[in-house]
Amino acid sequence: MSDDYNPRVTPWQIDESEFYEIDDARAQKEFLLRYAVLAPSSHNTQPWSFRITEQGIEVFADYTRRLPVSDPNDRELLISIGAAITNLRVAAAHFAFETTVLYAPRIEENMPLALVTLRETCNPDPQLCHLFSAIPRRRTNRAEFDRREIDAETLEKVCDVVESSEMLRFVVPHDRAHAAELVEEGDRVLMSDERWRKELAHWVRPNESGAGDGICGDAFGIPGPLAALAPSLIATFDAGSTRGRHDRELTANAAGLIVVTSDDDGIALLRAGEALERLLLTLTSLGVQYAFLNQPVEVPHLRHELWRLIRSPKPPQLLLRMGYARPIPRAMPRRQVETVTS
Ligand SMILES: Cc1cc2nc3c(=O)[nH]c(=O)nc-3n(C[C@H](O)[C@H](O)[C@H](O)COP(=O)(O)O)c2cc1C
């Protein structure tokens, strides 16, 4: 890593004009991957790697970055990789490529999950192009949101995205209080599990950490000096009751709740991640903030109850709240593209 590489700043500052100076196809693909790695991932594990070939870009899971306690079946790992695929496709469209995603028939370790092919075009997908500027501005925002509704015009655009995907569903306002109870109970169950807390603590970093992954304390509103203590505090104390009450309020008062649903098989989960990131980039481009409330999805009996609540043919994978709030100024760290690309 070069001395002036700051993982919270450098990866997010991409000068797009550099792309037009590249005349080598491999270097062009590597440039596009700089956008892919800005995708969100559970605990900011960034569980992906890429291989550039003549046909396109092969996408792999990096199973060394698993979360065995909170994500024992690699659901969130695959969703995170799907999100990176969307970023790659959005960036490719912006630079005038048409992309196709060819999924592997089965998930096998050491084999690519998907191949993203690229072909130059004069007509890149306008919906993908439109999302490009949101990639470096997207942030997960865990703060309390303003207590105001999403304005009608914006809501209509969010509805368009939700309704155009069979994987996205709103929680209707009538069911919000029930969803909030499930989130509270999810916090209690998860945080009472020392293994779960230790796993989270393992990925929490000081605010000025030089690490290229993990969640810095300020993402949870923890200021500088205290953030260094956050991992040991999280690992030691069960704050489930306090956290649960807090998250229950956030859920009940959200301007909107959206669930990502899909079957639990590998390709469906990648596609769910692609739909997730389309949604998150749309929200970002509309000036709407979002955060995850997945607690009930990670506890089997609560997941079942959430599934019943949303009356969806497919099980819930993620629960999100959205609303207006002050944007998050500092991005979370990212690893350098070179370290995840071969
Ligand atoms: C599949 C998935 C699951 C996530 N689950 C949670 C969650 O349960 N709670 C949370 O606060 N953030 C969650 N996140 C957000 C990540 O922690 C976040 O993306 C990561 O720290 C990087 O930060 P950024 O999104 O601001 O770039 C999730 C993200 C993804 C993609």
- State the end-to-end CA separation: 16 Å
Helix-strand pattern, N to C? HEEHEEHHEHHEEHHHEHEHEH
Kindly estimate the percentage of residues that lie in beta strands according to DSSP. 5-15%
* Unique bound compounds: flavin mononucleotide
**Rg to the nearest angstrom?**
19 Å
Which strands sit side by side, in order, in the main sheet?
1-2-4-3
Helical run tally: 12
Please state the overall shape, judged from the principal axes of the Cα atoms. Answer: globular
The overall strand count is 10
The mean pLDDT is 96
Low-pLDDT sequence parts: none
Class of secondary structure makeup: alpha+beta
Percent helix among the residues? 25-40%
What's the story with the biggest beta sheet?
A: 4 strands, antiparallel
Describe the fold and architecture:
- The chain has 342 residues and is α+β, with helices and mostly antiparallel strands.
- It contains twelve helices and ten strands.
- The strands form three sheets. It has a four-stranded antiparallel sheet, covered by helices on one side. Strands 5-8-10-9 form a four-stranded antiparallel sheet, with helices on both faces.
- A hairpin with a 3-residue loop joins strand 1 (48-52) and strand 2.
- Helix 2 (75-94) packs across helix 10 and helix 5 packs antiparallel against helix 9.
- 45% of the residues are buried.
- The model has no long low-confidence stretch (mean pLDDT 96).
- The structure holds flavin mononucleotide.
